[in-house]
């Protein structure tokens, strides 16, 4: 089983080729570059490194969000296009679950990233030898609201990119950026998608959508 994995949902970019769940090659970056200009370059590089070609792919796994509206759309669009062109299965996974898997930790892990205006995209998962379970539903919430939900799990550990400005407001955290190659060992976190019907999972409406809804409801 050869899987191509793609995550462009935030500032970091992560792409990988896995064989039977184990990483053959991966490229992870955290630089501020437009993912639309780099993701296919990195994907092509993966094939060169691993000695495979696109026709060897059995399935594609993409981070469906939440995250940057533009970033999520880029990854999902690339994944859908490739899956359709190659005639392979398409799977998606939460961007937050990818961060949890990338930590290489066990226990209650709370990945998060900046949602602006004092809010974060966040969730909490229980990771162990038997897999990963969601214990706090993925959502868009304030840090205070998240802390209230995490109070039930006093041994939890927060995961976030230490380069994000809001990290100053988090008392203790483990610097973690996505490595999507790690997610295949948590099959329960993945869901099969319809190539034509799949849509990103933003968890909140954009400002443009919010303004449009406000105008139409007047």
Question: How many E strands?
Answer: 11
Question: Into how many domains do the coordinates divide?
Answer: 2
Q: Pairing-aware structural class of the strands and helices?
A: alpha/beta
Principal-axis shape: globular
Question: Any idea what the radius of gyration is?
Answer: 17 Å
CATH topology title of the largest domain? Nucleotidyltransferase, domain 5
What is the level 1 CATH name of the largest domain? Alpha Beta
Which sequence of SSEs, written as H and E, runs from N to C?
EEEHEHEHEEEHEEEH
Provide a count of the helices. Answer: 5
- CATH architecture type of the largest domain: 2-Layer Sandwich
Describe the biggest sheet?
6 strands, mixed
CATH homologous superfamily of the largest domain?
ATPase, nucleotide binding domain
Spatial ordering of strands, largest sheet: 3-2-1-4-5-11
**Uncertain regions spanning at least 5 consecutive residues:** 206-216
Mean pLDDT: 91
Helix fraction bin: 25-40%
Strand content: 25-35%
In whole angstroms, how far apart are the ends? 53 Å
Domain Gcp-like: 31-147
Protein name: tRNA (Adenosine(37)-N6)-threonylcarbamoyltransferase complex dimerization subunit type 1 TsaB
GO molecular function, one term: transferase activity
Keywords: Transferase
